[in-house]
Amino acid sequence: MTKISNLIIQRFKELEVQMRTIQMVGGHSDDHANHEQFYAWATSALNVIQGSFGTDSPHYVRFQKEMSSISNNLVWTNHFSSICGIFLGAKSDIDGGYLFDIERSTSGELFGDLVETAKSALAEGHHTVATVLACAALEDALKRYAISQGIQVEGQTMENVVNALKSKGLVSGAQKSLLSAMPKVRNNAMHANWDKLTPQDAGSVIGFVEQFLLTYF
Predict the structure, then answer these.
(1) More confident call, 198 vs 170
(2) Engineering a disulfide at 159: which of 31, 55, 120, 183 sits with its beta carbon 3.0 to 4.6 angstroms away?
């Protein structure tokens, strides 16, 4: 689990504790949440939901909708319960591992940019630069995918990660055969054995990592 994942999970836990300390005031017929405590919590809760899921997510949209229906700062019991329920739903998704899907999506975008840079370098005749960039993207993508599948990758070489993915049946067919050749190219690229790299190596890695990102990210 990444440091960012741990921080987000911890923040949701802290906000759940804070939520449960919000006092209800008034009488039996007009119970409402202490508005200072509520808004201090709700602002932070909305922020972490937005940061985790984005503004288009159901959690964020529903939270915002419930907040906008509050008038005169009076958070009646029904509003309070609904808003808390939305927050707990978001927390449940985070605790259930949905955050990894977010990370994989974000990672796919970042890796995609790196691959595009590699393609541009190859088109300009800089195949060594292209190979280094593509290999960096592939190695990180493989490790992130392995982590999402419960495989320990810390301190492992790319070859070890590839073998672990193959042994668990997470890559197969033509992809499995192509992947077996990638560690050698990666080692030449990262250890500055650039005389051993060819434009075909660069094209092979770029093509593979593009397909891998489309399949898994």
Answers:
(1) 198
(2) 183
The share of the chain scoring above pLDDT 90, in percent, equals 30
Instruction: Give 100-103's long-range contacts (Cβ < 8 A, gap of 24+).
Output: 100/5, 100/148, 102/52, 102/53, 103/2, 103/4, 103/5, 103/144, 103/148
Global pTM value: 0.50
Q: Domains along the chain? A: 3-96 (no CATH), 99-216 (1.20.120.330)
> Which one-letter amino acid corresponds to residue 148?
S
